[in-house]
Amino acid sequence: ATLLLLQERIPRATPFYSTATIASETDVTSVSTESPVRMLTTPHTPVPEVHLLSNGRYHVMVTNAGGGSSRWKDFAVTRWREDPTCDDWGTFCYLRDIASGEFWSTAHQPTLRRTDHYESIFSQGRAEFRRQDLDIETHTEIVVSPEDDIEVRRVRIANRGRARRTIEITSYAEVVLAPAAADALHSAFSNLFVQTEIIERRAAILCTRRPRSRDENTPWLFQLMTAHGAVGGGVSFETDRARFIGRGHTVAAPRAMFDRGLLSGSSGSVLDPVAAIRQRITLDAAESTTVDIVMGVGDTRDAVLGLIEKYQDRRLADRVFDLTWTHSQVVLRQLNATEADAQLYGRLASSVLYANASLRGNPSALMRNRRSQSGLWGYAISGDLPIVLLQISKAASIALVRQLVQAHAYWRLKGLAVDLVIWNEDHDVYRQQLQDQILGLIAAGVEAHFVDRPGGIFVRHAEQISNEDRLLFESVARVILSDERGTLSEQIARRPQPHVRVPRLTPTRVYRAEMPVDLDLDDLILFNRTGGFSPDGREYVIAPTSEKTTPAPWVNVLANPNFGTVVSESGHAYTWSENAHLYRLTPWANDPVSDISGEAIYIRDEETGHFWSPTSSEEGTEPTVTRHGFGYSVFERMVDGIHSELTVFVALDAPIKFSLLRLNNRSDQPRRLSATGYVEWVLGDLRAKSAMHVTTEIDAKSGALLARNPFNSEFTEWVGFFDVDDPARTVTGDRTEFIGRNGSLRNPAALHRTRLSGRVGAALDPCAAMQVTIDLVPEQEREIIFRLGAASGAGAANALVQR
Length: 803
Hints:
Helices cover about 15% and strands about 35% of the residues. Helix 8 packs across helix 10 (about 400-415). The longest helix is centred in the middle third of the chain and has 22 residues, at about 315-335. By secondary structure, it is α+β, with helices and mostly antiparallel strands. The strands form 6 sheets. Strands 2, 3, 4, 5, 6, 7, 12, 16, 17 and 18 form a 10-stranded antiparallel β-sheet that branches. A 10-stranded antiparallel β-sheet has the order 24-25-31-32-33-34-41-38-37-36. The protein contains 16 helices and 41 strands.
């Protein structure tokens, strides 16, 4: 009865709310060329394009590649990390063809499978993805209910082929139910308190967090899957990430996609909680079906059970899609904004959530900053939230202020907290006309109560800010806008300078894989079919195969009193200096399942283009033998006639990690190879916090790549360095260039090119990569040494490199 009233348009003659005089003088609606719908035909945009969905309490962010996050009030519902290069965090949906065993996802992430037809469509209150794989067409719609704290992901699956097809659809989300900061600091500890429960008769999973005290009220999460209009099979469930992903696998190719049959159904106090539901559907030729995946949060178990019962009904799920449009229009009218404005603010939010060079300060200014986060506190700004900086110098540009204030209100309603800093650069300090206009504009709108508060608006006189603090603000701001650079849409459309183009590597010889060699490990002491002690007892030898890996990362801790690294049996590592938590040189994921790493070494055959790692064995290839000794680890492998031996150790009296790579040509042909070392910089506690502040440069004397993070108040002057002992090297400090957008370290884009570009500086996704070329005649051996370290200043770092 009320649905028609909710959708009835408000007469334009009646103002939605009364406006103050100051607003009427300046509230001129800007003419925007933005379309009310954003349609993107590729997931590989230079930066992830985001769309924000919210009902004021439950917030969803989704990118054009399918990544994103879900939050409820101050709690992270699912796990997300800022990663403008890989963008592989979020809630996902897998599809698998039972006959062929091939699988893909409803969006580009996480399987990264290419398709001829791909669309991501962002309109008010809704995100959509369209793609076609193996004659199966999928159309996914994502909305947030205005009534309940839930999100609905509706997947329409159509069989465009001529034969009957059986498809498995599997949902996947990593459960957090805690403040995002707490999960980021120690996700493994946070996971221990999540309890899961399966309700089979309703095809649903419940999750909650065990309370730390009697009076603590913990929220409940649910996920359910309902299929409409198709022959369904048995429903199965999984809440244990280790069983779903599988040891050594990732979300791009989880073990659950290779294991035929039902999910295990594990539940309870799992160590690493997820919510995954699988259903099997059968489609005749030209038949289609709809599957609804609903996820939401409630204060109590009974409230969540009520939502599960409610959204079993297809009509109530349809109602969510109907009400979402109405709700989004009401929100826009409250802000006095158009749909084109909302799309513009959504595009701007991409640079707020994923820091990139397009709207940041000049790289030269970023390189000069030496002040830390504490320099912001004198301006009542914490620095914990993203900062958007607007520089305004003339009263004629007051419309730009109105747009940014409106954008700030829009982001706040969508759950994106931002500190908007407005610099008044008008030099007429006596009349204060521009200052009064800005403050009056804010006071007349919905943001009047958010002045000088965290997540609010801060208006400051630019002349009262010192040059050092100006550099600090320009370096920490994720977005810098100025009334001297055109309209808001023109500034958003601005793109950074094109990157250096490096030609692709053209193979001159075809690579033919060799049969793997069986290892003779019978002489090991206490051998357990995966590893054992060497006969002299001085080393532990590990030789896992692709079918049988170690149950968890088996690691060696190599350290001196001030510096150290942890190396697993697969060569994945993380390194720190001075403090293993506060000053990590490379990332520490604490993930015993995937054992992901921010350090890697690659060997490439320059003639065939085939590349491999000297430390880890991919499926179906030659095994790696790992030897953990006292103070060192050795990785041995034979691939395509090249024997490699990588020895990793730490200096006894200096903060340096050595990776000594020996290559021996055991084939009967001369070989031209390259060795590439790679590290991701952290220079702090969390990569997501420090990445946008890390700057890199090449030392003119030694050629080493130096990295700084002045935003780290504890280690402001410290410098990390990465070097190799061959002066004829190519380098890069750009992680996006090395890995490639929506790429991974299993197949980095840089290894398909002839060399590294030499790109370093500021406003990059920071890394350090060095590549050297080696020529080997038969039976010749060559050593390459990569060095990673840190020192308390540039002079000390250069002295260590020279030593």
